[in-house]
Specification:
InterPro entries: COMM, COMMD9, COMMD9_N. 43% of the residues lie in helices and 20% in strands. It is built from 8 helices and 6 strands.
């Protein structure tokens, strides 16, 4: 969806920008969520529950049927989007079953096992290969373990961010771009021109399905110099307040 709104309609959305930048692009903002409280601003902490059942390591051996590392990464990514869902969607089961040529029961067990491994690593805040390796039993298939450890070490940070964002009830600003344009108007008396800022915001919608990545909407905003000055002043105050909150013990 690509739409054009006035600055007044989207000023509050533009305030999501963390600070003025010289560069034309900024990637995903840090996953910090603020909520109001009786004492001002407070942080919303991520709570990742540990799996209630032991990890089905036998089911993980089904990954030996994968045709490539990329396929293993895709299966792990798919499992990570399910979060703490107790049941695996039928569509996901069908996709895994077709990808590995296994029975639906095996596909479901594999996906649940990957969910449990990812949840365990996130709960224990594991990030390096040495610590992730301790999750697997000593007699687990060595090559498969090394492959999974490498995949987890590379992607856990991304999955943690996804887990945090999935608990937020508002759309997330994921990217923005801008350019300066000259706006010219003419009449029979005089010619007038003014510089304006065209700001493009990319906003990811709130997830509605556990197994699907929500779409990204594009919003184009036109800002006058006066509006931009007001917005930057507000962003500066937000930055100072965030710094003050972060500095508190």
């Amino acid at each position: 969806m690509n739409s054009l709104y006035s600055a007044q309609h989207v000023c509050c959305l533009a305030l999501m920008l963390s600070s003025p930048r010289e560069s034309s692009k900024v990637k995903a903002l840090p996953p910090v969520v603020l909520i109001s409280s009786s004492h001002g601003l407070a942080t919303l902490n991520l709570k990742i529950m540990a799996p209630t059942d032991s990890i089905n390591f036998e089911a993980l051996n089904i990954l030996l049927k994968a045709s490539s590392k990329e396929q293993v990464v895709a299966l792990c990514q798919q499992a990570s989007t399910l979060g703490q869902a107790k049941s695996v969607p039928t569509q996901t089961v069908a996709q895994v079953s077709a990808a590995l040529s296994v029975e639906p029961t095996e596909a479901r067990q594999l996906t649940q096992a990957l969910q449990a491994v990812i949840s365990t690593c996130l709960q224990q805040d594991l990030s390096d290969s040495a610590s992730i390796q301790q999750v697997f039993p000593a007699d687990f298939h060595q090559n498969l373990r090394n492959l999974l450890v490498g995949v987890l070490a590379e992607h856990l940070s991304q999955w943690k961010t996804q887990a945090i964002n999935s608990q937020v009830s508002l759309p997330q600003l994921v990217d923005f771009d801008w350019r300066v344009d000259m706006k010219t108007s003419a009449d029979s008396v005089s010619h007038m021109s003014a510089a304006t800022c065209l700001l493009q915001l990319k906003v990811q919608n709130v997830p509605k399905h556990v197994d699907r990545v929500p779409p990204v909407d594009v919003v184009n905003v036109e800002l006058s110099k006066e509006t931009l000055d007001t917005m930057l002043d507000g962003l500066g105050k937000i930055r100072d307040q965030l710094s003050s909150v972060a500095a508190k013990p």
